Amino acid sequence: MTINGDRIEQEIHIEAPPEAVFRFFIDPEMHNRWIGLRATLDPRPGGVYRCIMTQTATVVGTYVDVDPPHRVVFTWGFENDPQIPPGSSTVTITLTADRHGTRVRLVHTGLPHPAIAPHHKGWAGYLAQLATVAAEPA
Q1: Which of 3.90.470.20, 3.30.300.30, 3.30.428.10, 3.30.530.20 would CATH assign to domain 2-134?
Q2: pLDDT tens profile 18-53
Q3: Tally of CB atoms within 10 A around 26
């Protein structure tokens, strides 16, 4: 897990195949199991990515690239937040088959400097939660 300038990079191994893990980034019900409270997702280029993270924070962006089950790219920002407005940063998820599971690589770019450390910590927690729920039996 690293921070390089405005770039957060994190990787985690998940004991599930890429096809199963990919669904957690495009299916609202599965998405809700690892991040946020409620998601509205339209996983196609230009489609909405919206996640109510907490009672007071909602992420809004759009899908940029959807390549099942290898890669998902979406923009990221918060409603009513001039520091990180909707769609102002980019999250790239790359999934690679890896020793009986999936290597998930997350790269988040375009965040303002004060938001990098909290996002770095937040993504580490969310990816750990993703690893837990994705490895559960279907």
Answers
A1: 3.30.530.20
A2: 999 999 999 999 999 999 999 999 999 999 999 999
A3: 21
The β-bridge partners of 104 are 12, 95
Residues 38, 50 contacting (CB under 8 angstroms): no
Closest among 7, 102, 25 to 64, alpha carbons compared: 25
The answer for residues whose C-beta is within 8 angstroms of residue 127's C-beta and 6 or more apart is 10, 12, 104, 106
Q: Are 24 and 131 in contact (CB under 8 A)?
A: no
Domain ranges in the chain are: 2-134
Of 53, 25, 48, the closest CA to residue 119 belongs to 53
Ordered DSSP codes for 8-41:
EEEEEEESS-HHHHHGGGT-HHHHTTTSSSEEEE
